[in-house]
Amino acid sequence: MFIKHWIIVLFTLLFITNNHFAQLTGIKSKGVIQWKNNARYQGGTHTDNDTLFYAHGSGKVSYSNGDYYEGQFDKGIRTGKGYLKYVSGDTYTGSFLNDKRNGYGVQQYKNGERYEGDWLNDERNGKGSYFWLNRETYTGEFLNNKRHGKGKQTFKNGQRYEGAFLNDKPHGISYLTYPSGKTYKTEWKDGKMIKSIKDKSSPSN
After folding, report:
1. 118-176 pLDDT, tens digit each
2. Cα–Cα dist 76/57, whole Å
3. Domain residues for 74?
């Protein structure tokens, strides 16, 4: 017997939840998929054999853990542009690949801090800028969520460090500029300054 306006189809949907594949049986009605674990998806779908469906194209999903995603999918995997709001209050707007943050994106943290830049496999990798709540900023290179490579950090007192970082610490030759305008050529090791020479020349780019 057909029910007017509601055609209920039971199927198995292959989908990504918390970075793991899960086979979920749900009810599809008017393009809305509701799963037994209370996750809810609305948007485009793709099927290979009329029994196995994937979230595909543009859509939005409310996860059972409280996270929310709106954006593009490729056969059940977040791929393309999207917006992800975590139950913690953090948000991410940018590119996804294989269900992870990949490419350029902006992460806004609940505590007010923000990162704008490149991502690789859910970690800050490449060039970007980080903004702390105390108004300190860093612009430069990142590796596995750490400041690593060339960069510039401005401190809340106006002091500026421009040079090399290693494993999230100043390391190597750099230029340190004080609020007075005086600039010193310095050498650092594991976050500690071991040598300082007054130098009026500009930092190299």
Report:
1. 999 999 999 999 999 999 999 999 999 999 999 999 999 999 999 999 999 999 999 99
2. 9
3. 46-198
Q: How many residues does the chain have?
A: 205
pLDDT in tens, 177-188: 999 999 999 999
- Nearest CA to 15 out of 91, 81, 74 is that of 74
Q: Considering only CA atoms, which of 106, 112, 70 is closest in space to residue 89?
A: 112
Q: What residue type is assigned to position 142 of the chain?
A: F
User: Do the domain assignments include residue 166?
Assistant: yes
Residues 6+ apart with CB under 8 A from 184: 175, 176, 177, 178, 196, 197, 198, 199
Q: Residue 194: give its domain's CATH number.
A: 2.20.110.10
Structure tokens at 78: 């977040």
When comparing pLDDT for 1 and 174, which is higher? 174
- Residue 146 resides in a domain: yes
Is residue 128 within 8 Å of residue 118, measured between CB atoms? yes
Q: Are 73 and 43 in contact (CB under 8 A)?
A: yes
Tokens in use for 177? 């500029």
d(CA 84, CA 66): 11
Which tokens sit at 201? Answer: 């020349």
